[in-house]
Amino acid sequence: MSKHRIGFIGTGAVAELHQLSVDKLEHAELAGITDLNQERLSRREKEWQAKAYPDARALIESDEIDIIYILSPVEAHYEQAVQALKAGKHVLIEKPVAMTVEQIREIGRVAQEMNRICFPAHNYIYHPEMIKMKRYIEEGALGQICSAWFTFIIHHSEELASHYPGVIRQIMTHHLYTTLYLLGKPEAMSCSATKLHYQTLEREDQSVMLLEMPGGAQAVLFSSFACDDDTSSPWTYLVKVLGTQGGMNYSWRDVLYNRAIGTLGKAYPKYEELFFYESEYFINECIDKGKAPLSTLQDAAVVQHMVELAEANLGKHMISC
């Protein structure tokens, strides 16, 4: 069986994790890369032994590339995704998928028209423990779901945070698609946000959402770039779901060691593994077997709608989703 040939648009921090994951895939290989930063592109070409292309269009139009990973800033996602799909390539697109709901829907329309897969990189849900949690919930093992917590608490310096939008778009997007996957679409939501440690950046570094779920359960979503949690019971990244008959935890802090990679100053193996699990599912299940992603472009549009609602209604009481 010939290998799927993958091309990366973007070779920054998140691409490091994607490269490690692709390197472990049995039926795929990194065949091409491109980046606006020519110095970094030249360095990655040597490190990763992948052909460097002068720009995204050249990579997309190459006959030597089958699949495009869009790992560029979100502002470029829509144009690059549409170009890649129209060129007949399957696409994995980092989150946030696009800037607006309309852009996500148009990407979905083009993917359907071209009969190509566009896979949102909603990687947090692809860990086997998360898939198991969903199964237990659906089987009723936890009883009636009462509450859920989703937390991300990892300090980001102002310089690092300058490469991202605020935590609502950057981190709440993760929490929202995970909520959608595990519990379904919220009926109502409220959101507040604050800026605690940025000196010049005009964006939030901490936010909390309260969601009212079908059946009466409540979910609390918390995201912070302002601090770390190094307590004896850390909430660095935590998903907790409680029901009338039981509960489940999922945490990145089960294993931790000092080795920086990507954007994080410490190694959280459960985080790094997510990139392999999503690529494995994308290649083996979606492309090779025709299955749908566990989190679809339709889900990405729902999440983007909730993000936009949150930003437009900060500090207000519950609003309908």
What is the strand and helix layout of this fold?
Blueprint: E1 4-9, H1 13-23, E2 28-34, H2 38-48, E3 51-52, H3 56-61, E4 67-70, H4 77-86, E5 90-93, H5 101-114, E6 118-120, H6 128-139, E7 145-153, H7 158-161, H8 167-170, H9 172-183, E8 188-194, E9 206-212, E10 218-224, E11 237-243, E12 246-251, H10 269-287, H11 297-312, E13 319-320
Parallel strand pairs: 1-2, 1-4, 2-3, 4-5, 5-6, 7-10
Antiparallel strand pairs: 7-11, 8-9, 8-13, 9-10, 11-12
InterPro entries: Gfo/Idh/MocA-like_OxRdtase_N (IPR000683), Gfo/Idh/MocA_oxidoreduct (IPR051317), GFO_IDH_MocA-like_dom (IPR055170), NAD(P)-bd_dom_sf (IPR036291)
Pfam family, one: GFO_IDH_MocA_C3
Domain Gfo/Idh/MocA-like oxidoreductase N-terminal: 5-121
3D architecture notes:
It is a single chain. The chain is an alpha/beta fold and 321 residues long. It has two domains: 4-121, Rossmann fold, CATH 3.40.50; 125-276 and 302-320, Dihydrodipicolinate Reductase, domain 2, CATH 3.30.360.10. It is 37% helix and 22% strand. The chain has helices spanning 13-23, 38-48, 56-61, 77-86, 101-114, 128-139, 158-161, 167-170, 172-183, 269-287, 297-312, and strands spanning 4-9, 28-34, 51-52, 67-70, 90-93, 118-120, 145-153, 188-194, 206-212, 218-224, 237-243, 246-251, 319-320. The longest helix is centred in the last third of the chain and has 19 residues, at 269-287. It is globular, with a radius of gyration of 19 Å.
